[in-house]
Automatic annotation (TrEMBL):
Name recorded for this polypeptide: Pentacotripeptide-repeat region of PRORP domain-containing protein
The entry's keywords: Repeat
Any GO MF annotation of the entry: RNA binding
PPR repeat residues: 1-32, 33-67
Domain of life: Eukaryota
Biological process annotations from GO: RNA modification
InterPro entries registered for this protein in UniProt: PPR_At4g14850-like_plant, PPR_rpt, TPR-like_helical_dom_sf
One Pfam match: PPR_2
Length: 141
């Protein structure tokens, strides 16, 4: 129920309500999970709140939740939307797990949004390395 409310607020750009609800969860002793943090990162990404997004990404670790590829993709998306493409690339390069298609696509989308063809080519090459069947997805993006 909590995650459903979080994503509903996030999808309607009611970011402050997302943060308030997260605080309520903490106050009630309800431990956030993998999905909870995806919802909060989504809210930060779609409203350009880079510092808040970083805060919640780090907070995951305090709750003993190891960030997965979806969390990294959300973080890369956050930086990409904020025109911080070099920082997004640094996140990808420093990930403790191998970047997945979703991570590279988030980066590629940021490159496309801001017209950075050089980094877009780099991202597309990384996607192609993951598998030839993914080439069509890059063409669509």
């Amino acid at each position: 129920m909590w995650n459903a409310m979080l994503i509903a607020f996030a999808q309607h750009s009611q970011t402050e309500k997302v943060f308030d609800l997260f605080k309520q969860m903490e106050g009630l002793g309800i431990k956030p999970n993998f999905i909870t943090f995806l919802c909060v990162l989504y809210a930060c990404s779609h409203t350009g709140l880079v510092e808040k997004g970083q805060h919640y990404f780090e907070l995951m670790k305090e709750y003993g939740i190891e960030p997965g590829d979806q969390h990294y993709a959300s973080l890369v998306d956050l930086f990409g939307r904020a025109v911080k493409l070099q920082e997004a690339l640094s996140i990808i390069r420093e990930m403790p797990i191998r970047p997945t298609e979703s991570v590279w696509k988030a980066f590629l989308t940021g490159c496309r949004l801001h017209g950075n063809t050089e980094l877009a080519d780099y991202a597309a090459d990384r996607i192609f390395e993951l598998g030839p069947e993914l080439r069509f997805a890059c063409v669509i993006i």
